Amino acid sequence: APLIRREDYVAPAFWIRTVDISFDLDPAKTLVISKMKVERNTAVPHGPLRLHGEELQLLRVLINGESVSFRQEGHELVIEAAPDADFTLEVRNTCAPEKNTALSGLYTSGGSFFTQCEAEGFRRITYFLDRPDVMAVYTVTLRADKTKYPVLLSNGNLADSGELDATRHFAVWHDPFPKPSYLFALVAGDLVAREQRITTRAGRDHLLQVFVRRGDLEKTEHAMNSLVASIVWDEARFKLPLDLERFMIVGVSDFNMGAMENKGLNIFNTSALLASPATATDADFARIEAIVAHEYFHNWTGNRVTCRDWFQLSLKEGLTVFRDQEFSMDMAAAPSARAVCRIQDVRQLRAMQFPEDSGAMAHPVRPDSYVEINNFYTATVYDKGSEVVRMYQTLVGRAGFEAGMKLYFERHDGQAVTCDDFAQAIADANPGSALATRLEAFKRWYSQAGTPHLKARGTYDATAQTYTLTLSQTNPPSPGQDSKLAQVIPVAMGLLSHEGQVLPLQLQGETEPAGTDRVLVLDQSAQSFVFVNVTADPVPSLLRGFSAPVLLDDGLTDAELLVLLKHDTDAFNRWEAGQRLSLNRILAAVRSGKPLVLDGAYIEAMRSLLRHPQLDSAFKELALTLPGEAYIAEQLEVIDPQAIHAAVDAAQNQLAHALRDDWVAAFEGNQVSGGYQPDPVQSGKRSLANLALAMLVLDAKRSGDTVWPGRAYQRFKDAGNMTDRLGALSALVNAHAELAEPALARFHQQFKDEALVVDKWFALQGRAAERDGKTFARVRQLLQHPDFSLKNPNRARSLIFSLCMFNPAAFHRTDAAGYVFWADQLLALDAINPQIAGRLARVMDRWTKLAEPYRSAAREAIVRVAAKAELSSDVREIIERALA
Ligand code: B3K
Ligand code: ZN
Questions:
Q1: pLDDT of 629 over the 90 cut
Q2: Ligand 1: which of 325, 377, 383 to mutate, most ligand atoms within 8 Å of CB?
Q3: Which of 85, 390, 646, 670 would give a disulfide with 685, using CB separation of 3.0 to 4.6 Å?
């Protein structure tokens, strides 16, 4: 497959204005008839009509009702003799939904039909100009057996429906909004719906529906509530209303990702949709709320205004992640709960995006080239993209950002545009702002890959009462980008005295202090900021709220970090100070090769956090959780996964032991009474109680005590919700307690008919703390389990990805067996579903940074995969980049 470059973009030679498409749905062979109104794009050189099509059986092609000569060139249907005047094009073809294991295009799952068209699935349904800048108005007719497929859905509004004959029926759907083909969707099956009507601020009435398999209806209440909350929020915050009479969500259990924002007909992985207290955890409830919101928000940021080409993917994804993160924070409401949201988002960014940005697949937020676009639905495009949008808001303020969004929609509603268009709208709505005056430099966030390193050093002059803060940045090279220019980095900050008092912030040249919290903008490789009237040697609190996606070296001592941990008014930085104290100790142990021994000062700091009378339980849980192993690895030149794990493990065990009595108090003090609610307060308590229990069971393993494993087992059995049940089960499993075995068996027996819970059962074992190779051996055994299957993406992820992606200590083995396992599973998966295989291939992104013997063994496994002739272009691209 060829490399596609951003700079080669040319507008299409033809526009397709309307599509009248019908489906005779049959799992083995579905007939598709598509009638299009086409016109030549006179703005580009005259050329043939080239339609995309893959895995299709072509029956006939007509232009203006007449057959026309054409040829097939690879995945293109080429018509040389397309007229200059507007014409109608009719294509007839069939496809085979039940053979479609790639889950892209039209496929079957559990006896129903579903589609997934983003990015390039529509060409697996019919021949088309399958690119996002071709926007058409669709009318869709579905015909199918009425007993097997009583529900027939597509985008937009239902225009007609009825019987065809004794066995078949039909439905006609019309979507008035022009859309790119990637937003097309159809669903046909035996489904039931939860329904709700709402009246929006504008006074319009809408029908909301959530369709699922019979039996899953009780699990849709949370998703429906989340949808209603999303609609209300988008109208209130951004004045963006729901624009269709009907908004539908459908759940499907075979799905490549979380969900898809098809116009008016969102399709969801059941794992991102279904929740009941008995089967879903607090984290699941929060994730469902965020994904329902995300897909809904796409209706404006993605659908009404879409991407000109796939290089602009972050235009819709970064912006929509930003919107869903803001929504989740607003839903959490309390300042401390907002901070918890922010910390979780940053943790995710550091765990996934930072490693991506320093590995073989590092790419800018707006990539310059790709072979397979599905490989670029990445943490960089999504999560770093969201951080870039957040920086706009930081630079122009909340009201300024809202004004920018307003202008963006005024200019571009109904268009397919670029990241530059977005940047221009935000800047133009905020003339003279810190953004507008640096717009070209700011846009380097779109073009330069890699995580900037920000260094900060301060000097205090007691006589002059000045504090000089020098900020500098380096932007390390990444594949294809050897040298880089300075980024625009907003640094939200404050100053504290060593006693913890907040100091006023007055920069040299200012007549009076401007508050105690402000944003410095670094736009050079180094800059100094001089604060005056500083009455005490300050401790700087920098990058508050994580105001830019950078790695910060502020050179703070333990004593200074302890000041921030105790007194910072910014909850994010308070948490960060604790993480830094932990990180410093773990890194020192890894670098020196000496066993980690936690010092008294650190343990006491953690103890006072845990005992703190005011801090939220959710915050405590985050603060007492050690930094993730992937983020720790990011700080090191050479990665020894076993050494990192050993240090983390030692820290964990020592914290478990040293704070034992406090863990008991935390466990007992965080029991929730009353009915289950997935709200921040309850879920915070459950998370801290679960952490405490895990620590107590871990410490019991060391001491030989049987009380806490016994209590954990009891709690596992009696739990009133999945969060507590799974928490207790993982405490047992991770500590390798004897009761883990009977608990695992009981859990499977109890939930064997709940696919999403069985996924949890596999995932828990795949992610279990490694000890003497037991976890790895178990995962290999579980491949043979009758419930395991590579065909269902959720199931494949639950076991294979859990091990390879989320369990470094079990995966990186000195005998290379983890890498052999990876290569075997990757090849097996690639034959079924290239998109999922492409994800698994990414596990080896950072193999060159591994220490020996891991490095050589990893290379051998990658080379073995590369040697396969029949790799998908998805996996081929990742593997070639890894070996480049
Ligand atoms: N836009 C989809 C992702 C499509 C992935 C295609 N490989 C879901 C989302 O971001 O909302
Ligand atoms: Zn999205």
A1: yes
A2: 377
A3: 670
